[in-house]
Design brief:
Blueprint: E1 6-10, H1 15-26, E2 30-35, H2 40-47, E3 51-54, E4 67-70, H3 79-86, E5 91-93, H4 94-101, E6 106-111, H5 116-129, E7 135-142, E8 147-150, E9 156-160, E10 175-178, H6 192-205, E11 208-210, H7 212-215, H8 228-244, H9 250-259, E12 268-273, E13 277-282, H10 287-300, E14 306-310, H11 315-320, H12 322-329, E15 334-337, H13 353-362, E16 367-369, H14 373-381, E17 388-392, H15 398-404
Parallel strand pairs: 1-2, 1-4, 2-3, 4-5, 6-9, 6-10, 7-9, 10-11, 13-17, 14-15, 14-17, 15-16
Antiparallel strand pairs: 7-8, 12-13
Helix pairs in contact: 5-8, 5-9, 10-12, 12-13, 14-15
Length: 407
Amino acid sequence: MNTPEKIYMVGIGGVGMSALAQLYAAQGIAVCGSDREESPTTHLLRDKGIDVYIGQFAAQVPEDAQMLVYSDAVPNENPERIRGRELGIPELNYFEALGRAAEGKRVVAVAGTHGKTTTTAMIGKILIDAGEKPTIIVGSMVGEFGGNFVAGASDLFVVEACEYRRHFLVFHPEVLVITNIEFDHTDYFKDLGDVTAAFDEAKRQAQTVITSRVYRTEPVPDLLLLGEFNKENARAAKAAVHAIAPHIADAQIDRSLAAFAGTWRRFEHKGSMPNNVDVYDDYAHHPTAIAKTIDAARERFPGRLIVVAFHPHLYSRTRDLFDAFASALAKADFAYILPVYAAREAFDPSVSNEALAAAVQKRGGHASAVSGIPETAQKLKELGPGTIAITMGAGDVYKAGELALDK
């Protein structure tokens, strides 16, 4: 396929899709697309001159588009995808398109069940600060990048790579960073062995592989970010930079890591309410990430009440990791549990927030089910003095914190 001059993107507001759209625009390709609703990323795209349509209708697909790129969340029967096929427009999923965009580059791909977003951003920041001018695609907004994409002027290409549906196999990276491996994406992988097999295949495609065995002894400076898990992310980032750019001095790397302020939705302080109630937001949507985030909050804020508002993400993940979710949420002083965020999945009546709240209670925790974001926001407003409130999940639960703060 020749380089297209015009691309239409279905699900353009996704965090990865929006970064890819910016990459296309930076290359001089005419790009536009659609999404189901407004979001910080759709606003960002418009600010950069990229047209975004809200709502997905067949008539929006340009007849002269030479490629259609779609998000994993967009089904085959989507009207825009159907229209694209009627027009004979070649279509690629997000990772297929991203893999083509990375061809011929010195790719640093960051994969793992947890920590890949922060690690990707750390690597990118180090390389930018050292004057290496990398292109960066990261799965969150990074304040220091002005978004989730950096257009570089060198052949370095730093990218967050997801294992879902083995998508990361589109890359043949010079450096592959694996932060950790756990059973996740249970709607696709059969078990942990299946996940591990996918990572093993990714390793075979890489020139250099960075795992915890490589980076566990890397010394890192004190960080602005909380938790031992972020120190592990920093160690992984430092080892990756040693591999891709060995001329960068440790002192330069450490200065960049020490100044790194974090990313959107990774224990992000959203604001404070009356009575010294601090509201944080975190993307944690796997039991391990939930437990580690709660532990880190307790370490940072000893003696303060920790209340979590958790938005389960996907029926399959909630069902298959149900007991682990209950145990993790029982670590909080109290957990409000929202209805399952279905995303790409159909309704599953066997999984509910009420059942998960009951399971937390059985494990000695304290939890109750709430109806949605408005009720969650109200509960946050009613919290007692000194509480640390954390909205958690991969969906849009962050809106509850913003509503409670009247943002």
